[in-house]
Each structure stands twice: as C-alpha cells, then as structure tokens.
Specification:
Layout: H1 3-6, H2 10-19, H3 29-41, E1 47-50, E2 57-63, E3 75-80, E4 99-101, E5 104-106, H4 110-122, H5 124-129, E6 136-141, H6 151-157, E7 167-170, E8 178-182, E9 184-193, E10 197-198, H7 208-229, E11 241-249, E12 255-256, E13 259-268, H8 275-295, E14 300-309, E15 312-313, H9 319-328, E16 333-336, H10 342-347, E17 351-354, E18 369-371, H11 372-386
Parallel strand pairs: 3-6, 3-7, 7-17, 8-16
Antiparallel strand pairs: 1-2, 2-6, 4-5, 5-18, 8-15, 9-13, 9-14, 10-12, 11-13
Helix pairs in contact: 2-4, 4-11, 7-8, 9-11
Bound molecules: zinc ion.
Residues 80, 112-113, 144, 172 line the site of zinc ion.
Length: 402
C-alpha cells in the first residue's frame, strides 16, 4: 500500500467487508484472508486463531511496541466478523452489496458491526503515525451472534501467547455513546420425553406438550416475580427477563404427544447469575419427573445449557470508561439490554467499555444500515484515541499480570 493510498475512508473497507457473506454458520476465512493481506500491507503481523474445525478464524494484530513499563499492554479494539442471517427478510436490495442512499449505507452487518471494523482498518495509519508509548491491538472475532463463542479461544491466549490489552473497547453499535453495563444471557433447551397414547385415553399416556406448558407456566411466573422484585432503572426493562423462544412437539391431533422441546433464555442484570431461576425450574421438573417415571421409565425431562454470555458492569473508576468518555467528548454513560463480548474480556481482566458506531435498532433487520455520519463520529473517536496515553497508574480491580 503506497503512502498516498494509506488513508482510505471507512466506506472503502465497509464495502469490501459487507461483500463477504459471513453469516455465522458460514466460514469467515475469505474475509480473514483479505483482512490479513491488508494488515501485511501495513507491515503488521496478524495472528490467526483458527477454530477447531478449521472453518473460521479470529485475528489479533498489534500496532506499536510496548515501551518502558512492559505491563502497559495498551488498548484493544474488538469487533466480530460474523453477521445474522438474511433469510425470509424483505430486503429491498442485495444485503451483501453496500448501497449508499441519502447518507445511509445499507447492507447486512453495516451497523452490527462491520461499520466499526471498517473504522478500525481506516484508522491504522493514524495509529501507526501517533508515536504512542503503548500499543494498540485490533481483535477480530467470529461467532459472536451465536453466543459469543468465537472470541473465547482468543481471550484464552491473552497474556499467554498474545499480549493482553489493558483496556478493550467493544465496538458494538451504541451510536458512539459510552456503555458501561449490559445484561448477561443464559439460554437453554428443555426436552420432554412423554408417552404416546390414543387421544381418547389420555390417562394412559404422558402428554409431553402439556407437561412442557406447565414448565413454561413456571418460567412465566418467575419472569413476573423478577419484574416485581428488581428495579435497576439504568436498564430497559429495569429487571431480568425470562422468555421462551421456540417450542415444537406432537404428531397429530388425536395422538397424545410423546415429545416436546422448547428453547428459553434469561437476560440477567449484572450481579444476577441466574442460578436461582435454573434451580427453581429444576425443582418443578423434578416434581414432574417423580410422577412420570412411575408411569414410564423412559419418560424424562432434560435441560441443556446452550449459551452463557456474562453480564458486563464496569467498575466505578474504570480507565476504559474514562478513555471512552474522553475520546467521544461525552460526560454520560449508559447501560444496554443486549449482550456483547465485553463481559468475557472483563472476566479475563481487561477494563472494558462498549462504544461503537450505528444504532442497535437497525441491527438484525432487513435493510440494515449505518449513517455515514456515524462512521465519521467513530473515526473522530479513533483519531483522538490514537494520541490518548494511558496513565502509569493502574486502576483496581484490574491487577497487574504477574
Ligand atoms: Zn454485534
């Protein structure tokens, strides 16, 4: 890349990024190959963390060298490369072709969150030329949309074979507002194995659907209790929630259904781990189990955890929040109800903040778009970040690496 073409606008990168169909169940390796080429043209050394099946990869790259205090491991910018499906959504144009209309850039992932990735790439020359005393790391993950699973192997390597950023900015769409807390997510599949019978003799069977309905009623009661007992008004809604997303089962109207399964989730306020919700659900399952096992030994209720995205809540004097407020020239922080990778980075000992371009209201929708002005706001943020120096003093509760 010649010096004159180094400074490219984020739209240039966004157009390329959107063109890669990186819906979560597909490989992201074409995008990763392209990404690594760009990084190499900037004379950087990307590290790939390849998934077990070899179909996907995260990328970690460092700009600059740690100087002086080697504990000062710099600032990480993190974004996911995957996007949600477009199937059955009424798009008015090709979701994988960036379209500019009236100041808005349309395409799958423009808001969530290839817009931020584009700004990260467009900012590399600024980061390189800033003569910083601490490095900036770029982290590109996969499978965020299916439970933040792809970032985990990369996080395991931080402070081991990869440098551990002292601060991580997760660029999910917040319209460049500074988000210091979000809810956690735990999701489950419950399978009810009943006993088939003719519908004229329900007493001879175990109706898996009706049993599932009773379990769901229990979840609804728990949801209501949470609504009445919790009230953290930084969140909308101000309480933890429980919801059933899908249910399936049964064969025909005149057969007592043998099988039913449903998927459900809890969205938990920071500090609420959801264990009591699960325990009380299990209690209800156990009560049923005792009865149905007497009728049919094969009858059972099984619940399997699917995903756990930890909640995020920055500490009061978080230097990540101070940095984001300074670079965004804002004074207020916000909490959101959607999950991100921030809770995982926080658990790994990185001070975290969520701040990125675009509106979450546009994410996951047909005709997803990002305002061009949002990209410009993000670029201004990253240009300020390029010259933002971390203080020598580390803030609790982020201990120094040994
Ligand atoms: Zn996202």
């Amino acid at each position: 890349m010649s010096a004159s073409s180094e400074y490219l606008p984020p739209e240039y990168y966004l157009e390329k990024l959107v063109a890669f169909d990186t819906i979560s169940h597909r490989s992201n390796l074409q995008l990763v190959d392209w990404l690594c080429e760009i990084l190499k043209k900037h004379h950087l050394t990307p590290h790939r963390i390849v998934s077990k099946d070899g179909q996907k990869a995260s990328v970690f790259v460092t700009i600059g060298e740690p100087q002086g205090d080697s504990r000062n491991a710099g600032i990480g910018l993190s974004g996911h490369t995957d996007v949600v499906p477009v199937k059955d959504q009424p798009w008015t144009s090709d979701p994988f072709r960036l379209r500019l209309d009236d100041g808005r850039l349309y395409g799958r992932g423009t808001a969530d969150m290839k817009g931020f990735l584009a700004c990260m790439l467009a900012s590399i020359p600024y980061f390189k030329n800033a003569k910083r005393s601490s490095p900036i790391h770029l982290l590109f993950s996969y499978d965020e949309e299916i439970g933040c699973t792809g970032v985990r192997p990369m996080i395991e390597k931080l402070g081991v074979t990869l440098p551990k950023p002292r601060i991580v900015i997760v660029g999910e769409p917040t319209a460049m507002r500074v988000v210091d807390a979000h809810k956690g997510i735990r999701s489950f599949i419950t399978q009810v194995q009943g006993l088939e019978a003719h519908s004229s003799t329900p007493q001879k069977g175990i109706n898996a659907i009706m049993l599932a309905a009773d379990l769901i009623t229990g979840l609804a009661q728990q949801a209501q209790a949470l609504q009445q007992s919790e009230g953290n008004h930084r969140f909308d809604p101000p309480y933890s929630t429980v919801h059933v997303g899908t249910i399936s089962g049964g064969t025909a109207q005149n057969i007592i259904p043998r099988y039913c399964q449903f998927r459900w989730e809890c969205r938990l306020l920071p500090g609420h781990d959801g264990q009591n919700i699960l325990a009380s659900f299990e209690q209800r399952c156990e009560a049923h189990r005792k009865t149905i096992k007497k009728m049919a030994p094969g009858a059972d209720i099984r619940t399997r955890a699917v995903h756990h995205v930890p909640a995020f809540g920055a500490c009061d004097n978080s230097e990540a929040i101070a940095l984001a407020l300074s670079c965004s020239q804002q004074t207020q922080t916000f909490a959101v109800s959607y999950g991100t990778e921030a809770g995982l980075f926080e658990r790994a000992g990185c001070a975290c903040v969520v701040c990125g371009p675009g509106d979450i209201a546009q994410a996951h929708k047909p005709d997803e778009y990002i305002e061009k002005a949002e990209l410009e706001k993000c670029m201004a943020f990253l240009r300020r970040l390029a010259t933002y120096e971390l203080s020598d003093k580390l803030h609790p509760p982020y201990p120094l690496p040994a």
